[in-house]
Amino acid sequence: MSSTFLAVPLKSTNEVDLAKPLISYIETIYQTSNDLSSEIKEAVQELNKLRNKACNQPLDKHQSALDVLTRSSFVILLFYSQQRVIEGEMRKRDTLVIRFLVYLIIYYDQLVAIENKLPITAAQNPIAFKWKDAFDKGSLFFSKASLTLTDGSFERAAVLFNCGALMSGIAASQAMHTDEEMKTSAKLFQQSAGVFAALKDTILGLVQQVPPYL
């Protein structure tokens, strides 16, 4: 007996240059030495690359993510409440999708880490983030509905949404041939629900203009 599970669709975005405005803000607000300034610029450039990997990189099924996954204890804890990771279970899934999820989580974690020292708001250090409605399919003459806000909390909300959506997609794609696969799917659906609950209870309260589809 086969069952069909629904997955939440991903939101899409356009490329954003984080480096230039963040470096400009740092140089204006903070007094740094030349050596430290170079390190900061390099770190901001890496953050910019991370966003592109997390939000704009197409899914190429020939890439592998096991090396990235095994280095991220946070992701391991997110996927498994137990203290063990079975590599075979990882190989049963689309490893590139897991890589995509890893990048999303790391990028979200970095956004949280910088929010107090590098605020992104309309009044202070504005950076425009445009995200499209995940549930609007658009039409022949009209593209998907989208919203653009100069708000770091909006960016975090959209990234967290995609984390939950991708977890639901991995859960729905499980083969369901064994008890282990069904348990993995159930666990991922539970974690996806937890992400969306956190999105509703905490992150959305920080966004100045909440889009209806969030």
UniProtKB/TrEMBL annotation:
Provide one Gene Ontology biological process annotation.
mitotic cytokinesis
This protein's GO CC annotations: endosome
Q: Which InterPro entries match?
A: BRO1_dom, BRO1_sf
Gene3D superfamilies recorded: alix/aip1 like domains
The organism's place on the tree of life at top rank: Eukaryota
- Where do the BRO1 domain residues begin and end? 4-214
The name on file for this protein is BRO1 domain-containing protein
